[in-house]
Amino acid sequence: MNINILDEQNKAKESIKAQGLRVLVCAGTGCVANGSLEIIKKFKELGADVSPLSDFDKVTIVPTGCHGFCEQGVLVIIPELDVTYVKVKLADVEEIIESHIKDGKPVERLLYKDPKSGEPVYKNEDINFYAKQTRTSLANCGNINAEELSEAIAVGAYEGLAKVLKQNDPNAVIDEIVKSGLRGRGGGGFPTGMKWKFTAANRGGKSYVVCNGDEGDPGAFMDRSVMEGDPHKLLEGIAIAGFAVGADEAYIYVRAEYPLAIKRLKIAIAQAEEAHYLGSKVMGTDFNFEIHIKEGAGAFVCGEETALIASIEGERGMPRPKPPFPANKGLFGRPTLINNVETLANVPVIIRKGADWFSSLGTEKSKGTKTFALTGEVNNTGLIEVPMGTTLREIVFDIGGGIRNGKKFKAVQMGGPSGGCLTEEHLDMSMDYDSLIKAGAMIGSGGLVVMNEDTCIVEVARFFMNFTQNESCGKCVPCREGTKNMLKILEKIVKGQGTMEDLDTLEELAKAVKDGSLCGLGKTAPNPVLSTLKYFRDEYIAHIKDKKCPAGVCSALKTIAIDEDLCKGCSKCARTCPVGAISGQIKSPFKIDQSKCIKCGACLNNCPFKAIKQV
Ligand SMILES: Cc1cc2nc3c(=O)[nH]c(=O)nc-3n(C[C@H](O)[C@H](O)[C@H](O)COP(=O)(O)O)c2cc1C
Fold it and tell me: Residue 582: helix, strand or coil by DSSP?
């Protein structure tokens, strides 16, 4: 080996120290959309000749990947000053520089305010969103410049790869992964070490590693964050996997809707090849390893491993029956290890810190941490990483800061369209693979949508069924026809046209689609329906029997009425109504013709006297 990674690491740490005061500005997809590139430009212009606080003789502006608290973007973190600024706008840059960096006076109005106490919070780790997190796969996201190899090296990149190459014992690497208890983060939770063993059993000929970065779950963006924020960690994880199973080539399958992830991965691959961390004779050893990027067109089913392989091969992305499993017959007919981005991003740290360290986190059967995309009706939305086994209550009420606008918690949809609905009774349940399956949900890729009392559960089930029906590739009948018929029934119910027989048919169909479908898309598509039927059957019945939507969401079941006592007869509602359903005499109460009303709510929103109500 001709590369001493620890020397490289020391050099990289020194070069970071020489940067002086580091101003970390988020340049992940969310903050870029919020104008962070202009903010970075302005910081660079104004900060170039700043002579900052006495301890530092230089200011360096560092564009980083996503820090997770996207809702509060643009985030600006200055670690040396122990401060995190939120919702930073272009107009705030000058004040941060003049007041804080030059004069040492923090800009209080740009600090995060605790939703309960209203008090400003200075340090990142004191913000309730971060306080209960344990960041492993996301550890460096938001803290380093993802486009600079030396920044990744300074925080440990390629140390694990150097360690395994020095040890030169692929089976020992696999044993370490087995011992760690790592399970696949792509949804199924299959033991990673076991999968590596199956693939390694075919060592000797050509084989591949495929990294699944398709991330098709609506609302999920954990894999994107790793690819954008710490691409070298992923490349290192893939290379270690390749060394362990005897592969010399890998593909990262990334959907084309992730252009920033693709750009940063390409930069990282070129840097790693140049530094001999990838390519031929990696780190001066006999290990050769090439990584390619394959851009996917963005179909949910292409995340399924056999469909994904077909897509890389240039075929239409459709699943095929298993066996043969990819470990035996995968890409181009060769043995292939396929793992998710987050799974592979956990590998370098397991090798560096050891299996015992990793397995000390989490529960007995679900080790380590899990990232979740926390969205919906919580105060703090964003990307979080917590030890497996953290409860839903801790996620929703501590990290998420509780339900927005003082509303009541109703449910969470866990794991996207493959997952299920959890309720108040699950708030103290451990979030791990097995407990979730028992409750009729699943971690899936980690989407977590929090719903309040104003959410219609039947409409949620319809929404997810619409998604899976659209995304079904159509190859097998149960999924193609079953999801279509389930969707039709759900549409009838939300329109108030469903019958109790429909409910029985819906349940029967759900079970048939689950049992009979070829791939995981169909096998899991009924989960949102089955779990909502289990926990919220009353709401389905209210739609069918009472023709009422208890949450007041389903427009076909709404009635809009004018309160005669409050109506002043100003005629604004009649003038606003797009279908002429409202009439009356000026200065007398107006009336709505229910047969004409399309329940659009325009009158309701425009009445100056709040005389129009939805009942
Ligand atoms: C419809 C469908 C979509 C999937 N989408 C993804 C995906 O976007 N990303 C992913 O890693 N796995 C996805 N999977 C799971 C993969 O097929 C595969 O199990 C996973 O990539 C294996 O990696 P892991 O063992 O590291 O989890 C999907 C499965 C199905 C059935």
Answer: strand
